[in-house]
Design brief:
323 residues, alpha/beta, Rossmann fold, Arc Repressor Mutant, subunit A, 2 domains, six-stranded mixed β-sheet, Transcriptional regulator GlxA family with amidase domain, transcription
């Protein structure tokens, strides 16, 4: 079971929190092993602060009231749950006042918890201004990262040891993942699900949430999962779900038609009308896209071809040449 802990800070944006929480909650409803938890940023009594804390100290272990940027009050425990290396800590962003301050974005105690979880092998992530909390914990030193486009310059100025990547959805650097503004937290969470459970699982969750499945900002943002899902044919979506989950395996047309609940001829006609591709061509696009990713990570063409289901690397070479 993977615990996903959301750190609540004063002035947080609701969508920064609700978007990723909805992804992992939907994943849990679908049977994936996720459990959500929430903790409020809170300095321990006597915890030293280099500068004034961003909000008044609340004695632990009483629950802490957190007021959001949109005015909805939230409440979360101050005590952190026990974490393992497989768990995720995610820091949503908060309202940025339009000017830089010298106060740390989170308490020294919280910064130590973030750094300690990462040092123990855990994953930390942020949405929007949450990147400043990771930077305060020292987790962005020497790493690539991103944040909302309006505060990228501020992040670069305040933390010059971080390499700020501009105009991308999110950036993964080891077990530190940072995303851009507001809604990009959904993309980040879908990426985390895809990296742990495969693109098919992420595509199903995205479809349940009625959002697009997106990929890393360093890769083509308009992936095959995105380009060919802008239609309303349930039969075609069902066939695509099966292809997404088993793209590396042989998938006869009759198997796809049975999954879609229509005849082979009807599926071919509807699939082509909805996506502009035949089911086989769609599967080939997925294979090609995954093969390109593997090659970009250092795999040979032969190795990548076998990994994505091609029995002959010549087919992969022909598809790459064609595109």
């Amino acid at each position: 079971m993977t615990r996903v802990v959301f750190l609540l800070v004063p002035g947080l944006h609701l969508l920064d929190l609700a978007g990723p929480a909805q992804v992992f909650g939907t994943a849990a409803d679908a049977g994936l092993p996720y459990r959500l938890a929430y903790v409020a940023d809170h300095p321990e009594p006597g915890d030293p602060q280099e500068t004034a804390p961003p909000h008044p100290a609340v004695p632990a272990p009483a629950p802490v009231a957190v007021h959001t940027a949109q005015g909805v009050p939230l409440q979360a425990p101050a005590a952190w749950p026990a974490l393992t290396a497989g768990d995720i800590v995610l820091v949503p962003g908060w309202r940025w006042g339009g000017r830089e301050t010298h106060a740390p974005p989170v308490s020294a105690h919280t910064a130590r918890r973030l750094a300690g979880h990462h040092a123990a092998g855990g994953t930390v992530a942020s949405v929007c201004a949450g990147a400043f909390a990771l930077a305060h914990a020292g987790l962005l030193d020497g790493r690539r990262c991103t944040t909302h486009h309006e505060i990228q310059d501020a992040l670069a100025r305040r933390h010059p040891r971080a390499t700020v990547v501009r105009d991308v959805l999110y950036v993964t650097d080891g077990r530190v993942i940072t995303s851009a503004g507001i809604a990009s937290g959904i993309d980040l969470a879908l990426h985390l699900v895809a990296s742990r459970h495969g693109p098919g699982a992420a595509a199903r969750i995205a479809r349940t949430m009625v959002v697009y499945a997106r990929r890393n900002g360093d890769e083509p943002q308009a992936s095959a999962l995105l380009r060919h899902r802008a239609h309303v044919s349930d039969a075609v979506h069902r066939a695509q779900d099966l292809i997404d989950a088993r793209y590396a395996r042989p998938l006869p047309l009759h198997t796809l038609a049975a999954e879609a609940g229509v005849s082979e001829r009807t599926l071919t006609r509807r699939f082509t009308a909805a996506t502009g591709l035949t089911p086989l061509r769609y599967q080939q696009e997925l294979r090609l896209e995954h093969a390109e990713h593997l090659i970009g990570q250092g795999a040979t063409t032969d190795t990548a071809a076998r990994a994505v289901g091609f029995t002959d690397a010549r087919m992969l070479r022909r598809l790459r040449a064609r595109t």
